[in-house]
Amino acid sequence: MRAKRSKLLIGAAVAVFWVTVWWLISGSINQEILLPSPMKAAQTLWSLWGTALFWRSVALSILRILGGFAAAVAVGSLLAAVTTHSRALGALLSPILHIVQAAPVASFIILAYVWIEAQLLPAFIAFLMVVPLVWKNMSAGIENTDKNLIEMAKVFRLSRAQTWRTVRLPSLRPYFTAACTAGLGFAWKAGVAAEVICTPENSIGKQLYSAKAYLETPEVFAWTVTVVLLSVILERIFMRLVRRKREVDA
Question: How far is the C-alpha of 21 from the C-alpha of 28, rounded, in Å?
Answer without folding.
Answer: 11
